[in-house]
What we know:
Layout: H1 12-22, H2 27-47, H3 53-68, H4 77-83, H5 89-103, H6 112-123, H7 128-141, H8 147-157, H9 163-179, H10 188-193, H11 200-216, H12 218-221, H13 225-236, E1 245-246, E2 249-250, H14 252-265, H15 271-288, H16 294-313, H17 322-347, H18 352-366, H19 371-374, H20 377-383, H21 389-402, H22 408-420, H23 437-448, H24 452-471
Antiparallel strand pairs: 1-2
Amino acid sequence: MEFQSVSSGMSRDFIAFVQSICGARSxxxxxxxxxxxVKNMKRRLELAKPNERxxxxxxxxxxxLCEMLGQRVPFAYVYAINATQSPHPRLxxxxxxxxxxxxxxxxxxxLLTLVINSLVKDMSSENEAAVAAAVATVPQLVTPxxxxxxxxxxxxxxxxxxxxxxxxxxxxxxxxxxxxxASVVPLESQLRRLLCDPExxxxxxxxxxxxxxxxxxxxxxxxxxxxxxxxxxxxxxxxIGAAFDYGAVPAPWLQTALLRLLAVLLPLSPPETQxxxxxxxxxxxxxxxxxxxNAAFAVVYECVSTALAITAAGVGPGAxxxxxxxxxxxxxxxxxxxxxxxxxxxVTSPVANLRYVGICALTRLVSFEVGYxxxxxxxxxxxxxxxxxxxxxxxxxxxxAMASPVNVAVIVERLLGQLRCPPPPTPTHSDAPTxxxxxxxxxxxxxxxxxxxxxxxxxxxxxxxxxxHSAG
Length: 472
């Protein structure tokens, strides 16, 4: 199979194919271009097999592009499997990429057995490029039937000297856990050692797996709280290096993952551990809050969520003196107040997404003390006038929760003002919020006011508004 190459390494025919796709003026025209390419490619492959590295690479690029645009190319999958046997690292990596994307998710695919054999062989190779390409493809191709064959070589790679390969092996073990948790339980001691890996990227790759395991069996992993707290302290103090900083925040994805883990496990910790972690979460919150970037806001919100989880859980298990219990309760209250103060910055933000986050946090805070939301009452009411339907929906839920005999009249009057406005057009997508001010006004009036006359007058106003809308 011969190609007339250009400077990019691809044939002119391939470049013309890509340009035809880019120049398509409609989806139908694009589909015609792709279907024509699939027919031409099938005819060319029947006449001559790609026997050179460049031609094989181009065939796989064509297959990948056609599959991405919705056109299946099953007759070419075998060339991806052949490429996984290539001695050339780039071609082998491309073969595994195409095999993972095209064959993954189909356990009945007859070619899957051939790919699994290649994976097992390459993961035992001394060529690190081949090992990395193979183990990176395991999460896409593993099935309940092939998991036993892949488990042993993947576990062996958890101790590989290259950090990139250890990280990919952890991703594969995470996928194993989702398929069969029982297969990963015996590996827990080995996985725990990776939390102390000298490479921060490897340790970060272990956190999603431990989060899933902690949610499934929190009592079994509660003893890891000091370990996660120590890692969080190092990250917050920039001890892992500036290479992981994003938006002036030290490793924000790592911090949010650790905070989620602490929110799950800390309620099961003894009071002394809760005290130290509460101080740590407060420190992280104070460091991130002034930065005012999206990454910092993400860390702040996770700190707030962790603080609320600790407050909701109360005192952890274990014997403790009254002094220790009181000290732990004081730390929890201090962290709760600090979290409530930070939420105000979200609610008053001009960015709708941040206001939505603030409304969500306030809704959780109201379950502990209504006063936290009442001090932001004006900002909350303003969110009702937002063009963002999701923000309106969340705000209605919050108003219903924060209504009290003192403010119910003001809140309901604002809700009636919303009802008097013409209703917005109903979104066509199925997951659009469907709550209306009526859904919040009625429960708020029913729970927060005992004045029967006022309730009757309110329902009369609602009925009058409903009649006007139906007549219009």
